[in-house]
Amino acid sequence: xxxxxxxxxxxxxxxxxxxxxxxxxxxxxxxxxxxxxxxxxxxxxxxxxxxxxxxxxxxxxxxxxxxxxxxxxxxxxxxxxxxxxxxxxxxxxxxxxxxxxxxxxxxxxxxxxxxxxxxxxxxxxxxxxxxxxxxxxxxxxxxxxxxxxxxxxxxxxxxxxxxxxxxxxxxxxxxxxxxxxxxxxxxxxxxxxxxxxxxxxxxxxxxxxxxxxxxxxxxxxxxxxxxxxxxxxxxxxxxxxxxxxxxxxxxxxxxxxxxxxxxxxxxxxxxxxxxxxxxxxxxxxxxxxxxxxxxxxxxxxxxxxxxxxxxxxxxxxxxxxxxxxxxxxxxxxxxxxxxxxxxxxxxxxxxxxxxxxxxxxxxxxxxxxxxxxxxxxxxxxxxxxxxxxxxxxxxxxxxxxxxxxxxxxxxxxxxxxxxxxxxxxxxxxxxxxxxxxxxxxxxxxxxxxxxxxxxxxxxxxxxxxxxxxxxxxxxxxxxxxxxxxxxxxxxxxx
Length: 494
What we know:
- The protein has helices at residues 109-116, 234-242, 358-364, 477-485, and strands at residues 3-4, 28-29, 42-48, 53-58, 73-76, 86-88, 94-97, 102-106, 129-132, 154-155, 158-160, 168-174, 179-189, 198-201, 212-214, 219-220, 225-231, 254-257, 263-264, 279-280, 283-285, 293-299, 304-314, 323-326, 334-336, 341-342, 348-355, 378-381, 397-400, 403-405, 413-419, 424-433, 444-446, 455-457, 461-462, 468-475.
- With 494 residues, it is mainly beta.
- Strand 24 (323-326) and strand 25 form a beta hairpin.
- The chain is rod-shaped and about 170 Å long.
């Protein structure tokens, strides 16, 4: 199957006479053919990280690429047996014969990400070498390529760096472990993650500025990978939980990024995800950790009980009848609250401010060994006293007050009644008073608001001395007679 033709112009003799042409039909058959016995060799290779291509150039024509075996190729960071990084090319890699001597291998993402995750390989020709087994490729004489052993690997002729920006492919939020996981299109430099460029919002286009939280910090993972995990700050987690319609499920948790959120290992910044194109997370895990009461303060002047919890609470879940004020961890005196008004401005909050009822304030003041100073003010709560925003009940506990302010507001006499039949004067005060301090002789009954044209000064009377907001005085007979003596005193309310 080997014949030769040539034209008369192909060659002349020494006298300039043209050779006799051997045209079609008169071709000359070969007298001997020596078969090709030189195997092909890999002459050079280029690693193109921008296109994820491994470009192989052989010393001669390679047979059709259907006989190419890609998994006989490996990359390593040194040209000898002392390498520390070794990557066998995945058999799933696609390849194409670009020319007779050139084969291009399209590396799979896992291989590319493994290469770019390690800075000791594939950053320059000096740390990128290739080994190849014999039989990876064949020439047209069906000769297998010459093997290149890992102990004498071939150096790359060029490395084309990545110029494509990383893009966010997926996100997951775990509010039990407080972790935000971000998956990118390629290996990223984990330590370049900027939480300040990440916003969680309720929709792809946020409903309002009040339904979005831009992170203020956090600790990112430090290993370069396609996945970066961010340990969220307690502050940011609580801010998320404070917004009722945000981050309670997959359906109301979307992520936007500025272009400064992260860089890939080549220093290329990520693709921006603006508001209006927010990416819905693929996985959501709600908080399953029970909250705890961290501290409380009691202010008897402002009449406020302030509770600080370990996480955002559902303020509407508070049951104040499950709160007990006591004088020690093992109490000798205690008082169960009957109610109160929640003064927190938000439905969800870590700090809950309660305006105590008048009856509870008076109840607390009836015993001098309870809630009169910091050291005898403790609070006990049951598991039914409150829940966090995910319905987890608070841990039952009893803790000492972090702060205490005594009652600095002067009590006021709000009303009184006089029963002339029973001889009882009933005094009603704005708060509990120390009845034992009452000086009856300092009390005057008079017939006018402004003057004492007619009056009786009490000189004595019996009453209970326990702390109370109502004191009933049994008026003496002498004082009753004096009151009855005057026609215009103690006869009516006017």
